[in-house]
Design brief:
single chain; alpha+beta; Aminopeptidase; 4 helices; globular; GNAT_dom; protein-N-terminal-alanine acetyltransferase activity; Acyl_CoA_acyltransferase
Length: 144
């Protein structure tokens, strides 16, 4: 089930962040800031109500940016990431933005494949974007 990301989800989200992103994880303050800014954030809950994923979208009149999508390791490959992405794209469409953008690590082939399946195409590279690993980010875009 997908539902609105609320402040009380932050601790569970941070556990996933630490596992998936290590030193490059977002801080509690970053999530508080995203929520306070009114960005569109969702969490995915399993049948027992346990948080297994989350995603966020920042929207301006000109474009939407997928801020993050993450799924707990033991819940990956089960359609949760796809459901989160579809919900973000539906929100972007609802708001009528002409394009949706995202950044993904150049070494994250699985995520790139998922995004490509939804019409995202590479449009640039941000060198050293992810810190402290200095990993490059592939910038991807889709119309609509």
């Amino acid at each position: 089930m997908l539902t609105r990301f609320r402040w009380w989800h932050i601790d569970d989200v941070l556990t996933i962040e630490a596992d998936l992103f290590g030193a490059e994880q977002w801080t509690p303050g970053m999530f508080w800031s995203e929520l306070a800014s009114g960005h569109h954030y969702l969490v995915a809950l399993d049948d027992e109500g346990v948080l297994i994923g989350y995603a966020g979208l920042a929207v301006t009149p000109d474009e939407a940016w997928v801020q993050n999508i993450a799924v707990r390791r033991d819940a990956q490959r089960g359609g949760v990431g796809r459901a989160l992405l579809e919900a973000l794209l539906a929100e972007a469409a609802r708001r009528g933005v002409p394009r949706t953008m995202l950044e993904v690590a150049v070494d994250n082939a699985g995520a790139q494949k998922l995004y490509a399946a939804y019409g995202f195409e590479p449009v640039g590279v941000r060198r050293g974007y992810y810190q402290p690993s200095n990993t490059d980010a592939l910038v991807m875009m889709r119309d609509g």
